[in-house]
Amino acid sequence: MKLSTWFIPSLIICVLSSSCSNEKTMEEEISKTFSGQENEIKLVTLDPGHFHAHLVKKSTYPQVDPKVYVYAPAGPDLQAYLSAIESYNTRDEDPTNWEMEVYSGGDFLQRMVKEKKGNVMVTAGNNRNKTQNILESVKAGFHVLADKPMAIDKEGFNTLKTAFEEAEKNEVLLFDIMTERFEITTLLQKEFSQISSVFGTLQEGSLEDPAITKESVHHFYKTVSGKPLQRPAWFYDVTQQGEGIVDVTTHLVDLVQWESFPGKIIDYENDIEMLEASRWATDLTLEEFEKSTGLKEYPSYLDSYIEDGILKVYGNGEINYKINGVHAKVSVIWNYVAPEGSADTHYSIMRGSDANLVIRQDEKEKYIPELYIEPVGNPSDFEQKVKDAVEQLKEKYQGLGVSKVSGENSWRVEIPQNFRTSHEDHFREVTEKYIEYLTEGKLPDWEVPNMIAKYYVTTRALEMAKE
User: Fold this and answer.
1) Mean pLDDT of 276-293
2) Largest CB tally within 10 Å, which of 17, 40, 286, 456?
3) Per-residue confidence band for 321, with pLDDT thresholds at 50, 70 and 90
4) Could you tell me if 123 and 269 lie in one domain?
5) pTM, whole model, 2 decimals?
6) C-alpha dist (Å) from residue 278 to 152, 245, 448, 452, 454
7) pLDDT of res. 343
8) Is residue 164 located within the same domain as residue 225?
9) 196 vs 51, which has greater pLDDT?
10) What is the CA radius of gyration of the chain?
11) What's CA 449's distance to the chain center, in Å?
């Protein structure tokens, strides 16, 4: 047996080569049911090729054992993941105490399944094999917390449906990381949409003027955890990462369902009607690619996307569809880098019979998302209705307020700073919610069918856009 140990200050990593013994290191079977006890959740991280894998571990959780078993191919993706964990362990404020036991070999999936050292598998990385990896994990009896997207094409969608069937059979919970449910303006947009005295009822809309629109603008070059993000080269290969129309749109389609039909089961075969879909590329120069990845040349697997030295990345897409008879539109745009002082942005509107609920995050808002309430028409008592609604919500969101926008027929919701958690904080909030579900031993009845409906919309849209 060949065994090498790699020491980094404050982070002990045991790296096992592919020639190591196949003997299990744990004598007892690890339980897959939970009671809320300390350290009973034992994490396995599979193929952590995306920075979302380490953001789940930016915080610690009482129920989660600090020892994490990592199975991945050797290479820069694994090194980046371990370096990020080390940075969390050594930071001055609220350091974590993760311990990594790493197996790096080409048979990492098979090794994980055979050894079964943990009970909850976390994965965020290359999406080419992710859906099959999820299926094999739930078949082996692992609970799974997976980064989006869990499927990037029709074949993946069918595999994902099988994974959910296997998860039910093996009594494990398969769940995806929907961070945007924890963004405060989205939470409040959902809350106000349920207050009929302000919002009225959700409109049906039309193809030209949807009742629900969600638009997201992202950037390839950005800063994460205070450092420039270095993306793996495969991120720009849509056969490995997935096109934009099946990637970021996962969040947007999820929010359409979660906000507009809370707690309701969506049957994709009866409640979804696909209308139109389109896709287009973002151009990257070799210089931009190098700055983003650290590589001086395009890998050969990107050759088919290069025209006259320019890399064509199909990161952009738009989907128009109907859900329960309501017109919805979601779209995603990827630019290379945000203009100075700006950031990723989100726009969303829900159209009600009495008011529209609009999230804007532009220069006027200093690129901070803000929620506006815009009445339909000019009702004389609308301001009082809005104030009454805010008072009602103060029980849940202490300190919430509202102010009329000068010179406009709209009101801005005043959100206390303590509710404005960051995108990185949302990974902790998602993980805490998942831990609640694990302790309860079940997901809400609507979660699984609605995840299936979500991935039907995105993968079917890709088919339509290519037709």
Assistant:
1) 96
2) 456
3) very high
4) no
5) 0.92
6) 15, 8, 27, 21, 17
7) 76
8) no
9) 196
10) 23
11) 18
